[in-house]
Amino acid sequence: MIWLYAGFIAFVLLMLTLDLGVFHRKAHVVSVKEALAWSAVWITLGLSFAVFVYYGYENQWLGLGVGVDAVDGLVNTGWIATQKYLTGYVVEKSLSVDNIFVIALLFSFFAVPGIYQHRVLFWGILGALVMRGAMIAIGARLIAEFHWVLYLFGILLILTAIKMLVLKTEHKDPNQNIVVRLVRRWFPVTARFHGEHFLVRAGTRASHESALPGMAAEPDEMVDRAKPGTLLLTPLALALAVIESTDLIFAVDSIPAIFAITADPFLLFTSNVFAILGLRALYFALAGMVDKFRHLKVSLAVVLMVVGVKMLISDWLKEILGKHFNFYLLLVVFAILAVGIVASLLVDRREKSRRATGPGA
């Protein structure tokens, strides 16, 4: 089994290396067209991996599908494993959309130039993969030892869904964020961007690089006052720290959601990784259209509610719907997301039409 994880991680690292080291080696503003193309690549890879899942579990390659899934008490055959992988992938992918809205706000607050946003997201998502991998490993072990943990996860998802539906989202000043305050207390942070660097050393020529190509170099008072050789964090590093902490908070909600589907570590890990890998491209494709999908947040809350309830009554659902009840869950999730997207687009079109006709029309 360890060779499966090693091979999968090697593949992911290869793709990330190609992404940053080849296709995005030179910093540039990612266009919507480029983002859509990369989104198509990552989604195709994620969906294509379902073919490997089917044959791997059907033929029990390297120990896949030989044990009983602690969530539903079923042995994961090729078809059952494929259902669970795709359901987990869709659920995690949809929940990551909410993360995009927050990232857009953070980039706006820190005034991160578009030319450097891809680099921040690259390292942010790499850190997110490590954190989520650790959380999945811990969660899978807890469920294997204490099955009642599933019910706690279900209650947590329902409470989170209620909070998303009832409480209004307040865009708090990131300066009050505990991570921002701790980083600024423990490390010196420059006020200016220094190219694509997260760290800058005081007293070096690189410290006075302009934030954007074509801008005249301006002195940085923090760098000038610091002792030569001192390492200082740039605003890019501060933005990265906040994005990492934000993803950790989102993971507390999204990781239990996938445990409602399966406790198989390989399915958990691979579906989560593929969902997160495409987050960068999805951000650049959707960041400019955040306002168009105002009702999607309600759909995401309903998805969490459905998944949480499913976690609490999974035994009863299995008796009523049969062993393929995860397939029906996948269809329900698709339907909920579709309603949210269509409703958002209809409301946006209606408001544009109203503005075009004018109040006196």
The percent range for helix content is 55-70%
Whole-number average pLDDT? 84
* Uncertain ranges: 206-218
Count of helical stretches: 13
- The geometry reads as globular
Q: How many E strands?
A: 2
* Main beta-sheet annotation: 2 strands, antiparallel
User: Numbering strands along the chain, what is their spatial order in the largest sheet?
Assistant: 1-2
The helix/strand class is: mainly alpha
Our Rg estimate from Cα atoms comes to 22 Å
Taken together, the total number of domains comes to 2
Distance between the termini: 68 Å
Beta-strand residue percentage = under 5%
* Order of helical and strand elements: HHHHHHEHEHHHHHH
Topology:
Elements (H helix, E strand, L loop, with lengths): L1 H22 L8 H27 L19 H32 L4 H32 L3 H18 L11 H9 L12 E3 L19 H5 L5 E3 L1 H25 L5 H13 L1 H8 L9 H17 L1 H8 L3 H33 L4
Antiparallel strand pairs: 1-2
Helix pairs in contact: 2-3, 2-9, 2-10, 3-8, 3-9, 3-10, 3-11, 3-13, 4-8, 4-9, 5-8, 5-11, 8-11, 11-13
Task: Write a structural description.
Helix 11 runs antiparallel to helix 13 (325-357). Helices cover 69% and strands 2% of the residues. With 361 residues, it is mainly α. Residues 206-218 have low confidence and may be disordered. It has helices spanning 2-23, 32-58, 78-109, 114-145, 149-166, 178-186, 221-225, 235-259, 265-277, 279-286, 296-312, 314-321, 325-357, and strands at residues 199-201, 231-233. It is globular. It has a two-stranded antiparallel sheet. The chain has 13 helices and two strands, in the order H-H-H-H-H-H-E-H-E-H-H-H-H-H-H. It has two domains: 2-169 and 256-357, no CATH class; 190-231, no CATH class.
